[in-house]
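Readers outside the structure-tokenisation community will struggle with the description of the input data as it stands. I therefore recommend that a typical entry be quoted early in the introduction. An entry of this sort, consisting of the sequence and the corresponding backbone structure tokens, reads as follows:
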Amino acid sequence: MKKIIVLVLACVLVIACKETSKTENGNNIQITGDTLVGKDNIASPDSIHNMEWIDEELYPKSKDLPLFVLSTGIFHGDETSPEMINKGWFGIFQDRGRYYIAPTTLSIQKTFDVISDEEGDENNSSKWTGWEVKTSHIDTSLVLISSSPRLSSHEINTIPLDKDFIDPNEKMTFAYNGSSYTLYSTGDLKPAEYNKDEMIISKYKLYIKGYKDGKELNQLLASTSTFEDAIFRVLLIGDIDNDGFPDLVLNTSYHYNLYRPTVYLSSFADKNQLVKVVALHESVGC
């Protein structure tokens, strides 16, 4: 019984290490929408590469993206490596309600993985399999992005969010730098078989709509066939790459035990895109 309690507490601690802050503050902006609250749950230990709940219809995928993303915290052995340090990094940091992007130095060191490592090995670092990611900044980091010539140090004018995700078939409108944008979603809602008071979301798609060069564009940001006690969440809207257009950081997780920070930048966008997904990182809590 004691072992079960310890395992549950350990899972909670690992998940807590990977939580991120929500956006606050901003100037000359408007936003409308409602808020939905998800659940915190515990799952059995496993690797992101062989989880039974991996969604084959998920968009975006993690392959062939131009940049890399990480978060601070503790990760399983196959979720990062010390070689990632050599890529050079920027961080989006929060300081007293404001967000800014700046170069940062990463530290990725071996640590005890409370889920994967044997309990008796806690004091034997040679058997540790986890990785702890830290930055040289004392401010809280929302996300870490590998270096690119399109990134530079500056304060990010962010959209203050009254909600952090969009209900199926709902929308959220915001203004940025004199232009109007809309986040909206489509999806199916039906009562759960085991509980008619609980609604199940399926075939969910999240879009952004806005004008570019005088042309209205509707762009798919993320999609999934189903959620498992999760929902795509908006972590930040603001000009990350300093080109005058809004960028996004989303958590495109479709499962409660998965954290999937995903970065979309406007400076990488094609002719018929408002933003382009440039990086994402997948990690599990337990």
In short: Confidence is low (pLDDT under 50) at residues 1-17, 19-47.
